[in-house]
Write a structure and sequence with these properties.
Number of strands: 11
Strand content: 15-25%
Low-confidence stretches: none
CATH architecture: 3-Layer(aba) Sandwich
Number of domains: 1
CATH topology: Protocatechuate 4,5-dioxygenase, Chain B
Number of helices: 9
Oligomer: single chain
Mean pLDDT: 96
Largest sheet: 9 strands, mixed
CATH superfamily: LigB-like
Shape: globular
Structural class: alpha/beta
Distance between the termini: 31 Å
C-alpha cells in the first residue's frame, strides 16, 4: 500500500523527508523507556505537531516489540462501529517499505467489528502520518498494522475494547493517533472568545485528566458536556477502555497551532503521551 499522503502531508522525496524528521527531534534529550505499551501521538502536518510527536517517539524503546499497531480516526469515511484495516502486505513511504503483520491482521479480521473498507484508506492521514516517524525515530524493522477507527456508540466501544485487548501482549506497541481540541468557527467550536489559548489549554488538560484517572466514562462524558472537538475520540476511548491495571499515563508535550501561528481565530491542540504498563 503506497502512502496516500506523500507529497501532500510530507515530502515525497526520501532525503527531504529524512532531514525534516531528523530536524524534529533535534535537541530533544530523553531517556527511552523499556516498558511503554502505548502512546498518544498527534497527526497534524509535521510543521505543527511534529515536535510533540518526536517527543513521544524519542521516549520509546522499541527493541523487543514484535508489532506496532497504529490506530487513528476516520476523517473522510463513515464507519459505524467498525475499524477498517487495509488489505496490504506492506506500507510504502518515501523512506521505504514497512511490512504489515499479516498474521496479526488475520487474527484481527476474526473480530466482528473489523472490516476492510477501501474508501477509508484512500486519503486518510491519521495512521499514515505516523509511519515515517516510526521508521526514523524508532529505528526498528518491526511489522506494523494500520487501523482506521470509525464512530462507535458507548456500548459497542466497550465491547470492541474487550475483544481487541484480548489480542494484545507485551510484544505489542499501540500508537493512538489523535489531535485534541479544534477551536474556531471553521470547526464549529467557539465556547469562548477571551484568553483563547489559556482556555483551550485548561479544556485540554481537563480532558487529558481522564487518562491519568483511566476513566473512559468520564472521558466520554467530558466530551459530551463540553462539545470539545477531539478528532480521535473513538481511538482514545478504545485505549482508555483497554488500559492494563498497572498502566501509568504521562503527558510528554503540549502545543497548539494557534500558539505557533500567533492567532486565536482557529487553533488545534496537540498532546503527546506515553503509557507504561503491560498488556495482559
Amino acid at each position: 500500500m503506497a502512502s496516500p499522503i506523500a507529497g501532500h502531508w510530507y515530502s515525497e522525496h526520501e532525503n527531504s523527508l529524512q532531514r525534516e524528521i531528523e530536524g524534529l527531534r533535534k535537541d530533544i534529550l530523553a531517556v527511552r523507556r523499556k516498558n511503554v505499551c502505548a502512546a498518544v501521538v498527534p497527526h497534524a502536518g509535521y510543521r505543527y505537531s511534529g515536535r510533540v510527536a518526536a517527543g513521544v517517539y524519542q521516549r520509546v524503546e522499541a527493541r523487543g516489540f514484535q508489532r506496532i499497531l497504529v490506530l487513528g480516526p476516520s476523517h473522510y469515511c463513515a464507519l459505524r462501529n467498525k475499524i477498517s484495516i487495509p488489505d496490504a502486505s506492506h506500507y510504502k513511504t518515501p523512506l521505504g517499505l514497512i511490512n504489515a503483520d499479516r498474521n496479526f491482521i488475520a487474527r484481527l479480521r476474526k473480530l466482528s467489528f473489523v472490516t476492510c473498507e477501501t474508501a477509508a484508506h484512500v486519503s486518510e492521514h491519521s495512521d499514515q502520518i505516523q509511519l515515517p516517524l516510526i521508521q526514523v525515530m524508532l529505528g526498528v524493522h518491526v511489522p506494523v498494522v494500520c487501523m482506521v477507527c470509525g464512530q462507535f456508540d458507548s456500548k459497542n466501544i466497550l465491547n470492541a475494547a474487550d475483544q481487541l485487548q484480548a489480542l494484545l501482549d507485551e510484544k505489542t506497541l499501540l500508537v493512538v493517533s489523535s489531535d485534541f481540541t479544534h477551536y474556531g468557527e471553521s470547526y464549529g467550536f467557539v465556547p469562548f472568545n477571551q484568553e483563547v489559548q489559556r482556555n483551550i489549554e485548561v479544556l485540554d488538560r481537563s480532558i487529558f485528566e481522564m487518562f491519568v484517572r483511566k476513566d473512559v466514562q468520564g472521558f466520554l462524558k467530558k466530551l459530551n458536556d463540553t462539545g470539545s472537538t477531539v478528532c480521535g475520540r473513538d481511538p482514545l476511548a478504545l485505549l482508555l477502555a483497554m488500559l492494563p491495571e498497572d498502566a501509568d499515563v504521562k503527558q510528554i508535550a503540549y502545543e497548539t497551532s494557534g500558539y505557533l501561528l500567533h492567532e486565536d481565530k482557529n487553533s488545534v491542540s496537540y498532546i503527546g503521551a506515553i503509557v507504561t504498563g503491560t498488556w495482559r
